[in-house]
Amino acid sequence: MTTIHTQLLSFRTAHQEILHGLLFTPTDKSSDLALLFVHGVAMNFYLPPLAVFGQALAERGYHGFVINTRGHDWVNRAGDLTAFGGATYETFEDSAMDLDGALECLTRQGYKRFILIGHSLGCIKSLMYQGNRQRRDILGVVSCSCPKQFYSARAMEQPEFKHLMAQAEEMVAQGKGEEILWAPASGATGMFCARTYVNKYGKHENNDVRPHAGRLGCPHLAIAGGSEHPFFPEYAKEVAEASGANGSYRIVPGSNHFYDNHEPEVIEIITHWLEQFKT
Q1: What is the rounded distance in angstroms from the CA atom of residue 251 to the CA atom of residue 271?
Q2: Among 22, 59, 63, 26, residue whose Cα is nearest residue 44
Q3: pTM passes above 0.85
Q4: Radius of gyration (Cα) for the chain, nearest Å?
Q5: Fewer CB within a 10 Å sphere, N or C end of the chain?
Q6: Maximum Cα–Cα distance for the chain, whole Å?
Q7: pLDDT, tens digit, for every residue of 137-155?
Q8: pLDDT band at 64, cuts 50/70/90?
Q9: Between 194-201 and 161-173, two packed helices, what is the crossing angle to 10 degrees?
Q10: Side-chain-side CA neighbours of residue 193 (13 Å)
Q11: What is the pLDDT of residues 171-220, one digit of tens each?
């Protein structure tokens, strides 16, 4: 395998939020193509699976930037370091600015072509971003374990969901949108301010990414683990089909949501898909 160089980079968003990531580059191969890895809810750039994917793909000759969005970890220091940030407080509008900042950072590094690779909530962010932006310099999107987290899907899956959403909506209406509630999130209990909970999971259903997948204007690979909750492989098929001729999907037998002990299979799937972008 190729020797790789690892560099810690920082970048700013339009709102002057300072974020960080690891840029993995093969030492013997230059490129104008960069993979941008977007983590899931309350995750970060140094946790698996994306840090593992980024390093492995760099060893295979690809340049990759594994970033923090402002939704990294449940709570973090934000702004001038006196404010609270993290998954508890972020919105999808915030995450679009985070990806803008990361892509601008990569452009300053000399990259001209990009592929978004998201995991879990990072799939939602990536598909929404390209579905709305339709950037010509984004050549493709990979979504690994995209969740069905929109209102109607959650209402069917979680008996308490409608009550929690009504509670969050009432808190927002009363000017208490920054107050905290606890709710299920990807198999565990999560901490959300009411404003964020409504933004991410509300009745608007903006985060049903099937319409976004249909507007990507580029190839889309959806991946899911065969041992995840059934809605993950189901939704992988649905979002791939929504992408039309540009879409494809693969299920990794026996794999959980984080691809534990199945990382080599996912890396091989992504590597094979990336061959179409070689120049």
Answers
A1: 15
A2: 22
A3: yes
A4: 18
A5: C
A6: 58
A7: 999 999 999 999 899 999 9
A8: very high
A9: 120
A10: 18
A11: 999 999 999 999 988 667 899 999 999 999 999 998 999 999 999 999 99
